[in-house]
Design brief:
The longest helix is centred in the first third of the chain and has 32 residues. It is built from three helices and no strands. It has about 70 residues and is mainly alpha-helical.
Amino acid sequence: MMDRWDVVGTSGGWWMLAAMAIVAAAIVVSVWLIVHRPGAHTAIGPTAIDLLRERFARGEITREQFEEAKRVLS
């Protein structure tokens, strides 16, 4: 006669393997989300065009210099 523990013992290994696979997948997904989080690769400071506009607004460069620099940066 089969004991209750024999039935659980034979299939228990598969459940443990499945649980370990789920935990491993959760770890991989978590690390991927941390590395590839939205906004991770965006510039923190102003862009070159923003700085150029500021210099033009302050009168540090002429309109021709602004247009030439904007053409080069684009």
